[in-house]
Design a protein that fits this description.
Length: 254
């Protein structure tokens, strides 16, 4: 019997809103726990424990892993067969992936893997991990790490991100739980409205279906389909291009 509580065993796996159209609405990343709510053949309708997001996940992308004690703190890290930089790659792990480290050997962390990898354990560089309860004091600095990551609708793995996924991951690293979609982010009780004259580092700018992070009073960081990556540009240029400046809301995280 399959346990209703499972974890993502691939670097990431897409979550679909509808199995007929296969519309990607989100991605779940390695080590995140999901609850199986329903099943249709090889697909599980699942709820992601991180933010209660629901969608269909391919059943073979889910399995059992030990309780996490570390997480990935770099954009992406490669898993090696042996604790040696010249060793073969098993796969990769994205930013904020949750892992179980069995032991640390010199500069390498021994990580528990799954049947998907055909290895019980793999090795990643120690500098690429931090303890699971570590909170980054400057979440905007975390977001800046992700500059030049490609844009991907529904993306939450750092091989491709969308605007709301970028914001959620950065805040998550800062110890702040936050909704996944822009429509829910903009009404989150952790935000409060500000006036344009009060824009500062960490202010959030919301349009209809889009969000960005202010780096200072003039420049915005966001994942967008115009540049097709995570980029920094003047807020005024972004507003002019999107032609709906009057709609946007300025907020700060409490």
């Amino acid at each position: 019997m399959i346990s209703p509580k499972l974890k993502v065993i691939r670097p990431s796996t897409p979550m679909y809103g509808n199995l007929k159209t296969k519309n990607i609405v989100n991605e779940a990343i390695f080590g995140e726990e999901v609850t199986k709510l329903d099943q249709k053949k090889d697909w599980f309708y699942s709820e992601l424990s991180t933010d209660n997001y629901r969608g269909w996940i391919y059943s073979k992308d889910l399995g059992e892993l030990p309780k996490e004690n570390y997480k990935i703190c770099c954009i992406r890290t490669f898993i090696k067969e042996k604790p040696d930089v010249k060793s073969n790659n098993v796969h990769y792990l994205p930013f904020q992936a949750k892992i179980f480290v069995d032991e640390v050997i010199n500069d390498w962390a021994k990580v528990k893997l799954s049947k998907f990898h055909f290895h019980d354990f793999g090795y990643i560089y120690k500098k690429d991990i931090q303890k699971i309860n570590t909170i980054e004091k400057d979440w905007v600095k975390v977001a800046k790490k992700l500059i030049n990551v490609p844009y991907l609708w529904g993306g939450r793995d750092t091989k491709g991100l969308d605007c709301s996924g970028l914001l959620q991951l950065a805040l998550q690293a800062g110890g702040i739980s936050f909704p996944r979609d822009t429509s829910k982010q903009i009404i989150c009780k952790k935000l409060y409205l500000i006036h344009k004259k009060d824009i500062s580092r960490g202010s959030l700018v919301f349009w209809d279906g889009h969000v960005g992070i202010m780096l200072d009073k003039k420049n915005i960081l966001h994942a967008n389909a115009f540049h097709m990556n995570v980029t920094v540009e003047p807020l005024n240029e972004a507003c002019t291009r999107m032609k709906n400046e009057l709609y946007y809301n300025l907020t700060k995280v409490k």
